[in-house]
């Protein structure tokens, strides 16, 4: 069983050569994000992830969370690890200093959160949800709510959740039935919520739930949903904890993966009603919840990258140490480690090249989040926000779907041993499987990409992204060598196909929306692999620049970067043609059968 080692060299390469941390540190309010501080944070996070969280990953999966009359309990070691997490100030990394946060850039937090998720995804889900709840309260909560909840939540001594769906609703939040009955300046909440991550646990003294519910006079549908903050324990005016609120965990789900994360069914108001306060204005709850969801969607995409990295490290270690067969082309040679076999190398390169492409894209999007919030120029803020909005569904959908395939490839490299739980490879596949489902399925992300991101502005943001890709293509024209010729040709062809599909979507949707949505998921995958190729190509150019400058401290790293991008061009970007065909010509097959013919 291998332990996680943070890929600090590649993380630093992306942060310095692709993101440009100097430019991020120059943004207003980030002047304290100096190189020495950033390096120290990355180093300490890597130690915490590898030494504290990683050893609990397998044991937590085996033990799981449990529920008894006292509530939900996490696996052995998790509560102590969380106390260390809070003591280290990790929960406050990117939060507002006014409430005890450290106010560091989102892109730095992205690198750190990748480590948490790779080392122990089940553990990391708790601070992930807390971060989303903090952001929602920070942006739309009242001054009283911020004062009451944010200092403890930023510190991490209280955690947060978001309570959206119900058994009859699923992804259709218009069907939410939970109700909120006014009582003076507060409300009594009644209803039941499902799939609540860390809805109950014993790691902190209080849990702050953000809950969607309907007021008595609310209109039907999504326009009639309001958002309420409902703590597990009521909070007294002096900040101390008061009586237990009427909110309880009634069951924990038995899941395929992330066993150590308690996924709760929460009951509100089984007795006198759970006391909550309204967040923001009535009937705007879904709008506010999307603040949490958009942040969570990016973070789930990051989880896909993280679990892919963990599966890759595990598979690489096995391939280096598993001796089986002789080396191809070596007559009379002895038995060798399976990493010598061409197909195993192909699988490892497939994993590595996609992980590095996904990481580069996610970090660049995180930097755009920082710029959208902090750039002094309003036009630049708007430009970066448009790019963030466009690419978050791509980061979420493409990275999580890729994670399932990458984790499955890790099992394949192990052969039959990968199917045996004791080797650990299967856990990564089981854990990865939820990522393409929660916080909006891949189909929802794809529909969002088409409907809200491409069609709404008539393709303006998508064309702006393509224009940036073409700038990198122009730089590739000046690079020499067979590797760069392959990268240039692969990226050029893929960009052309992406442009064609965007134009087709814009032209076709007004008259045949079903045809467009039938190809929405292939379009998302196409956008993902091209965007990943764009950032990978930037990485190859940066590596070549280092080599040309005589930066010989790590020439192997830079040569490997170029070779990995070459593989991506040959094996991943080359898939663009099939995906583009599926988008523009595949709807006839998707829509061919009447409902009753599926069973024939």
The proportion of strand residues reads 5-15%
DSSP helix fraction: 55-70%
The radius of gyration computed from the alpha-carbon positions, rounded to a whole number of angstroms, is 24 Å
Query: For the residues shown, what is the average pLDDT?
Result: 95
| End-to-end CA span | 46 Å
Shape: globular
Counting DSSP H or I runs of 4 or more residues, the number of helices is: 20
Number of strands: 14
What is the SS-derived class? alpha+beta
CATH architecture of the domain at 54-88 and 120-283: Beta Barrel
For the record, what CATH class of the domain at 54-88 and 120-283 applies?
A: Mainly Beta
Largest sheet: 8 strands, mixed
Structure description:
- The protein is an alpha+beta fold and 600 residues long.
- Among the domains are: 54-88 and 120-283, Beta Barrel (Butyryl-CoA Dehydrogenase, subunit A, domain 2), CATH 2.40.110.20; 442-590.
- It has 20 helices and 14 strands.
- The protein has helices spanning 8-19, 21-25, 35-53, 55-63, 78-87, 106-119, 121-140, 143-155, 285-321, 342-374, 378-414, 425-432, 442-455, 460-476, 482-508, 513-518, 520-548, 555-571, 576-585, 587-590; strands at 66-68, 71-73, 158-163, 179-183, 186-197, 206-213, 226-231, 233-235, 241-244, 247-252, 263-268, 274-278, 323-326, 335-337.
- The strands form four sheets. Strands 3, 4, 5, 6, 7, 10, 11 and 12 form an eight-stranded mixed β-sheet that branches. Strands 1-2 form a two-stranded antiparallel ribbon. It has a two-stranded antiparallel sheet with strand order 8-9.
- A hairpin with a 2-residue loop joins β1 and β2.
- α6 runs antiparallel to α7 (121-140), α9 (285-321) packs antiparallel against α12 (425-432) and α15 runs parallel beside α19 (576-585).
- The radius of gyration is 24 Å and the shape is globular.
- It starts with 7 loop residues before the first helix and ends in a 10-residue tail after the last helix.
- The model has no long low-confidence stretch (mean pLDDT 95).
